[in-house]
Design goal:
By secondary structure, the protein is an alpha/beta fold. It is built from 9 helices and 13 strands. It has helices at residues 12-21, 40-49, 59-70, 103-109, 118-132, 154-164, 181-187, 224-234, 286-301, and strands at residues 2-7, 27-30, 52-55, 78-81, 93-94, 112-114, 143-149, 169-171, 195-201, 207-214, 241-243, 263-270, 275-282. It has a 7-stranded mixed beta sheet. Strand 3 (52-55), helix 3 and strand 4 form a beta-alpha-beta unit. Helix 1 packs across helix 9 and helix 4 packs across helix 9 (286-301).
Amino acid sequence: MTTVFIDGESGTTGLGIRERLGALPRVTLKSLPHDRRRDPAARRDIMAEVDLIVLCLPDDAAKESAAMAASLGNAAPKVLDASTAHRVDPDWVYGFAEMTPGQADRIAKAKNVANPGCYPTGAIGLIRPLVDAGLLPADYPITINAVSGYSGGGKAMIQAHEETGGPAFELYGLGLEHKHVPETALYGGLTRRPIFVPSVGHYLKGMLVSVPLHLDTLPGKPTGADLQAVLEAHYASCDLVRVVPPQKDGKLEPQALNDTDRLELTVHANEKRRQAVLVARLDNLGKGASGAAVQNIALMLGLHDARS
């Protein structure tokens, strides 16, 4: 048996991870009594007893917890951080297993792994293969538009929407400093900072991330079929990430993958206008958070082949 401790297990992501861990073989979940969850000595003691800890904490608390684990030296457990704190830290492996060839192996061998953000999972899933294939220049002026269910905003937003109804739809992050931009640029392979416009709808979960492109501005002036072929080749062996044809009615709703750990990518192209929109669809609490975390836990603990 392997043992796991979730530091911050009462939050939205922590609860999702706890539920999904039941599907993994040979895993025992350890917890602290509620009144000792903020006791540094108790937390350090339980860290020394387990094989892996998951950090579901605010960024500053996650850094503190990671440092506490590292202070155990040879007794230190592996660490998966679900916060934003270590996502662009070069000493941490980025936990998007399908991002590039060999990434799953790097996760499996890593001591410290940073779980991706929900929006970056969709954006990087679309952008990185095209950059690596040379169809999308690293300095291309990318714009990313996205909508998420209100669960992505954590307890406060969930409470606001469920108690008062909340707005039907709203843009946010219009100061263009959203915390997901650095990881999107770094792991998307971009040298020019993308413009990211997130939004939230009055529904619990489900996400669409879209990237519009002018095809004639790209090297070689590719067609939509060229873009789709690159994505299909990149994800050909993946079970959780699929490239699917666009719907004939030209519509896409965000909740179709709810309660799954899948990511779907589509290329919508108008060859007459030489324009395309790339779209990623996922459950922001699945592949966008807890599902990706459990996939990474399985890799880090060698529990089964979670490469796809």
